[in-house]
Write a structure and sequence with these properties.
alpha+beta; Heat Shock Protein 90; Helicase, Ruva Protein, domain 3; Ribosomal Protein S5, domain 2; eight-stranded mixed sheet
């Protein structure tokens, strides 16, 4: 037997084992974060930077002013710069926020926000490091009268820690009194189709109508997306977990780490919608004394406690952790960016999946510049959003697509082949707002198929579709009546002339008042009928 074929012992194998840092894991699995290919990578970097800017501005109650620039340095190499007027970032926090994966303030808070895991922007820095070797350059001005902190950052892959290559304190670099700017050089590919940075920014402007975004493309084109309203949507509040959404492993961890001295206090302090009476009922069903220490429960008692928590009738979790766009603001956003003849929007009442609140909003834009879809027989365009973020990839694996495609669109005046999206001059918009969006992967491209979510999406879209159908029918009636009255106007002069000749009348008759009277009477009758039908 050759030396290299010698069997390994357990000791030999143990020497080969080592811990893997999260940065090292994503270095080899960057596709999980949305860096599958050069064109998608370019979009992902823009998306993560813009999302961070919007979140920072809104948390500080600042109307966002965001500038995005993509500059082509050479073939397949681009410099992406995103600047905002947010509150800025304190000096000590800058390295960890931008160069340490799974670092952030949103993961442990149960409330609506764009980011969730603290991966996005640091993953963009990692991707730049992998593909071009260039560090990310961060500018931050947290004080109006202060200087600008500048960091050149990379990530220490083996430790998942920031590596500071250079640090400066300069007088300028940020255009606003406070704010943040990031500049990254990556390997990418620029496209101008549906999955382009332009499309992402346009859709972002629709569901964030309070934001003013400027975008300069690699071709030198400058696009301005002005804000439509001067008020932000309501700020979400943090809530506690609901007993219906807790799994056994999480409950065990909470029991071990709680500061509550007894089970009754634990249930009331750590969960939403649990009062003294509810806590007493849960303990009675579980057969556990109210005064027991949380850490003293056996595994069997922990399981009984969980089952009892999910059997007791409790109020739904509070919904002030959500920040929907709102019907009015959503309609303003659609009207600002889409030239349609009819636009309708709806915001459903909050609902719950796995004890987590969520809310569905929908909108339909019909006709106008979209008529070209009708002429070419193209499918309707579906815009998918989660917590005010456009979802441009993986539509087939998304609950939103599944819900919209399952609607029988022929009932609403549109053509449809099987269980596909309808065809016609239509844009369908669906937004899910949730304290924890059930994405299908870390790249946040599609929503998981929870029955509760699919049901709410269908109800929202169907209500918009009914309103659209009423509009289409009304327009059809108006067109039909206009054609009929046009025929009447064309032939009535001839009828009057023949009548005069038969009656032997030679006096000239002004027929215009007669026509106007008849036409007006007919139109009034038609409008009254239309109101009755509506």
């Amino acid at each position: 037997m050759k030396k290299e074929d010698k069997a390994k012992t357990a000791k030999d194998m143990a020497l080969e084992q080592r811990a893997i840092s999260v940065a090292e894991f994503f270095e080899k699995n960057r596709h999980l974060l949305g860096f599958d290919n050069p064109s998608k990578a370019l979009l992902t970097v823009v998306k993560e930077a813009v999302d961070n800017s919007l979140d920072a501005c809104e948390e500080a109650n600042i109307l966002p002013e965001i500038e995005v620039e993509i500059k082509e340095l050479e073939e397949n190499r681009y410099k992406i710069t995103v600047e905002d007027n947010g509150p800025g970032i304190l000096r000590d926090q800058i390295p960890r926020i931008f160069a340490k994966l799974l670092y952030g303030s949103k993961f442990h808070r149960l409330r609506q926000s764009r980011g969730q895991q603290g991966i996005g922007i640091s993953a963009s820095v990692l991707y730049a490091q992998l593909t071009t070797g260039h560090p990310a350059i961060i500018y931050s001005k947290p004080n109006k009268n202060g200087k600008v902190h500048v960091f050149h950052l990379k990530i220490d892959i083996l430790k998942n820690e920031p590596e500071i290559l250079k640090e400066d304190l300069i007088e300028s670099g940020i255009k606003h009194p406070t704010g943040t700017k990031i500049s990254i050089i990556i390997e990418g590919k620029y496209i101008q189709r549906y999955h382009s940075p332009y499309e992402y920014i346009k859709q972002t402007a629709i569901v964030n109508p309070w934001a003013h975004i400027k975008y300069k493309s690699p071709t030198g084109e400058v696009f301005d997306f002005p804000r439509a309203v001067n008020k932000l949507s309501k700020r979400p509040k943090e809530i506690k977990p609901h007993p219906y959404g807790v799994e056994l492993g999480i409950l065990i961890r909470m029991l071990k780490s709680t500061k509550s001295r007894n089970i009754s206090a634990f249930l009331q302090n750590e969960f939403s919608r649990v009062g003294a009476n509810s806590a007493e009922e849960i303990c009675r069903l579980a057969g556990i004394d109210l005064t027991r220490k949380p850490q003293s429960l056996t595994h069997e008692e922990q399981e009984k406690l969980l089952k009892a928590m999910q059997r007791v009738k409790l109020m739904r979790p509070p919904t002030d952790c959500l920040s929907p766009i709102g019907e009015e603001l959503l309609r303003e956003g659609l009207s600002k960016e889409i030239n349609a003849e009819f636009i309708t929007t709806i915001t459903r009442d909050p609902s719950v999946y796995r004890g987590i609140p969520f809310q569905i909003e929908a909108g339909i834009a019909y006709g106008g510049e979209l008529k070209k879809n009708e002429e070419t027989g193209e499918q309707a365009k579906l815009m998918r959003f989660a917590n005010k973020i456009p979802l441009l990839y993986d539509p087939s694996g998304c609950a939103i697509t599944k819900a919209v495609s399952s609607i029988r669109w022929r009932r609403y005046g549109l053509e449809q082949s099987g269980n596909a999206l309808p065809r016609g001059p239509v844009i369908i918009l669906v937004h899910i707002a949730s304290a924890w969006v059930p994405y299908t992967s870390e790249s946040k491209e599609a929503i998981a198929n929870y029955p509760e979510i699919i049901k709410e999406i269908k109800l929202a879209v169907q209500e918009c579709a009914r309103r659209m159908l009423m509009y289409i029918r009304k327009q059809t009636r108006v067109k039909r009546e206009t054609q009929r009255l046009s025929i009447f106007e064309n032939y009535i002069p001839l009828i009057i002339e023949n009548a005069k000749e038969l009656a032997g009348i030679k006096t000239k008759i002004d027929i215009q008042p007669i026509i106007e009277k008849v036409v007006k009477k007919d139109l009034v009758a038609h409008e009254s009928k239309g109101k009755e039908n509506n």
